[in-house]
Amino acid sequence: MNKLIFALAACVLTVCGAAPVKEESMHRKHKGTIVLLPQTSTIVAPDATLRYERVDDSRCPPDVVCITAGKIVYYFTLIFPNGVEPFTLEPAAPVYTSVQQPALFIALANEPPPKLPSNAPPAPPLPLVLNVGQPPQP
Predict the structure, then answer these.
(1) Residue 2 exposed, middle or buried by CB count within 10 Å (0-12, 13-18, 19+)
(2) Residues β-bridged to residue 31
(3) Residue 81 contacts by C-beta under 8 Å, 6 or more apart in sequence?
(4) pTM: predicted TM-score of the whole model, two decimal places
(5) Closest CA to 73 of 95, 51, 62, 58
(6) Region for residue 105 given its phi and psi (left: phi exceeds 0; alpha: psi -120 to 50; beta: otherwise)
(7) What is the enclosing helix (H) or strand (E) of 50?
(8) Which spans does this entry mark as compositional bias, Pro residues (predicted)?
(9) Whole-number Å distance between alpha carbons of 128 and 108
(10) What is the pLDDT of residues 97-130, one digit of tens each?
């Protein structure tokens, strides 16, 4: 009986006294390509999370004559321990360099989805492909 109590106490002390396990995914940096759906997030630096908020598509449908062409705009938020940094990307401005971390850039990596006809039902959210890394060299 004493051996059982001793073994149980040793197990409890070993588990309780062990250092907490660091979650490696919380400290990884994304360099390269990532894919996000609206309302999802990913860690892009040890202290920065990228959240893809939404997409607004006001482009003119192919079966309609419009006065203006409209545009597609993707909304994001970079989340840092000391604040947030909202920004947008669009085909006319496809790259964003972080103000809080100038070495971090986010860029559109794929073409916008095709325009839907005016009588088509809304399309389901499509994944957005982004490049994350160092600013491109001029």
Answers:
(1) exposed
(2) none
(3) 47
(4) 0.73
(5) 58
(6) beta
(7) strand 48-57
(8) 115-127
(9) 8
(10) 999 999 999 999 988 888 888 888 888 888 999 9
Can you tell me the distance from the alpha carbon of 2 to that of 6, in angstroms, rounded to the nearest whole number?
6
CA triple 20-21-24, angle to 5 deg = 145
The number of CA neighbours under 13 Å toward the Cβ of 98 is 24
pLDDT band at 88 (very low <50, low <70, confident <90, very high): very high
Strand partners, 36: 128
What's the chain's length in residues?
138
* Cα–Cα dist 26/9, whole Å: 32
Q: Are 85 and 66 in contact (CB under 8 A)?
A: no
**Tokens 């920065």 found at:** 48
Residue 12 has a CB neighbour count (10 Å cut-off) of 10
Contact (Cβ atoms closer than 8 angstroms) between residue 51 and residue 80: no
Token reading at 108: 């559109």
Which tokens hold the place of 32?
């390269």
